[in-house]
Design brief:
Length: 409
């Protein structure tokens, strides 16, 4: 149990809670503040949105203990808030709600739009509100209600506040989390970017942060693939960490490995979300067992997401001559806005497809190397678009379902 002290709707609250309790459960079950709704509990639908230190936050993926000393404002705490009152009236007028399940989260996000954005277009509002889903209204009334409130306030000479009165930056509860429950210390993106690769000391200091925790991955799995090349060639190829990284869609290194540490980045795209994780990794390699590990940490500044991950690999003789089997052990933890994707049951399927692209790229590079490395470098698939992968997967599922239906007849 952990002692939590926070301020909820202007009142100090202390409670003994389990570290795993998320903020929404804490508010609903311990404080009876049931205005915060829970829909997906995966950080996707936005129904649970409330304010942590003035910043709209999904309370279903925020641990209560991470909000130590933070100021929480739920929809109940916005009862007398001027913008909220105007939004409530506009939502009613414009039929911005039907069942009302999404409405508390909608209002909290809409309030942030009204507060921060000077003259948002309909498109701007739709983008800004795209993290809040509504199953009933079709959004037209919601968007119109927000437009009206913005227009009325600007007409009354009330200007937007560009940063929305936020006094703190960073993830929810940043700067307040109790010792021992703060996110693992990660390398700052700007720091990682600007660290000169040839500066072995800086790279070493950054990589040292990878070793000083008892970190265990939240998600892990094992994949095996086979390539039609001799084991020596494959093992030799794996020694070139830059070449291996270039086979992974979206990954690249910022330079050569220095004392087993490398700086690099991974770009991913999930629907409208693009993230660029900048970070550092420790690389080890054991000739005797033909195995190695890459342990890394990175941060995406825009989505405020962080990741730590490890890749273990073992290169073995395949079943046929000139065939190599590679066992991959993959483990990672994602925190921040993108954490929702690490909780999905689809993640292993997505990873399987990334590995398929990795193997395709690896094959192309191995063929090139087997031919003496002369001629044009092979074209490889360079970007990881998880959205496109998920769409392909959805199509596969539909095809499988149809196949199953027709087989039954
Ligand atoms: S319940 Fe939190 S985002 Fe859906
Ligand atoms: S009003 Fe029903 S989900 Fe939005």
């Amino acid at each position: 149990m952990n002692m939590l002290s926070i301020n909820v709707n202007g009142k100090s609250v202390s409670a003994d809670i389990q570290p795993r309790t998320h903020l929404a459960d804490f508010l609903r079950e311990k404080l009876n503040l049931t205005g915060t709704h829970l829909g997906c509990e995966h950080g996707v639908c936005g129904a649970c949105t409330l304010l942590v230190d003035g910043v709209p936050t999904r309370s279903c993926i925020t641990f209560a203990v991470a909000c130590q000393q933070a100021e929480i404002t739920t929809i109940e705490g916005l009862d007398e808030d001027e913008i909220t009152r105007e939004l409530r009236a506009a939502f009613t007028r414009e039929h911005g709600l039907q069942c009302g399940y999404c409405t508390p989260g909608m209002i909290v996000s809409a309030r942030d739009v009204v507060l921060r954005m000077d003259a948002p277009t309909e498109h701007d509002i739709r983008i800004a509100m795209s993290g809040n889903l509504c199953r009933c209204t079709g959004y037209v009334g919601i968007v119109r209600a927000i437009q009206q409130v913005v227009r009325d306030r600007r007409a009354r000479g009330i200007a937007a506040i560009p940063n929305g009165n936020r006094t703190r930056l960073g993830p929810s509860g940043a700067g307040h989390a109790a010792a021992g429950i703060a996110p693992a210390k990660l390398v700052d993106a700007a720091q990682a970017k600007s660290a000169p690769v040839e500066n072995a000391q800086a790279a070493h200091a950054a990589a040292a942060s990878l070793k000083d925790t008892d970190w265990k991955p939240q998600t892990s799995f094992i994949e095996t693939f086979t390539v039609a090349h001799p084991v020596d060639l494959v093992w030799d190829f794996f020694a070139n960490i830059g070449a291996v990284a270039s086979c992974l869609p979206g990954a690249s290194l910022a330079g050569e490995s220095v004392d087993g540490h490398v700086n690099g980045q991974v770009k991913i795209k999930v629907g409208p979300i693009s993230a660029e994780f900048q970070g550092v990794a420790d690389v080890t390699r054991h000739d005797a067992t033909r195995s190695g590990t890459i342990v890394g940490a990175g941060k995406d500044k825009r989505s405020n997401s962080s990741t730590r991950g490890l890749i273990g690999y073992a290169v073995k003789q395949g079943d046929a001559p000139n065939q190599t089997k590679v066992d991959l052990t993959i483990g990672f933890t994602l925190t921040g806005a993108l954490a929702q994707f690490s909780r999905s049951g689809l993640i292993q399927d997505v990873a399987g497809r990334i590995i398929a692209v990795f193997v395709q790229n690896l094959e192309a590079k191995l063929v090139h190397r087997a031919e003496g490395g002369t001629g044009v470098e092979p074209a490889i698939v360079g970007e990881f678009d998880a959205g496109a992968l998920m769409r392909t997967m959805a199509l596969d599922y539909v095809k499988r379902a149809f196949g199953w239906l027709f087989r039954r007849k």
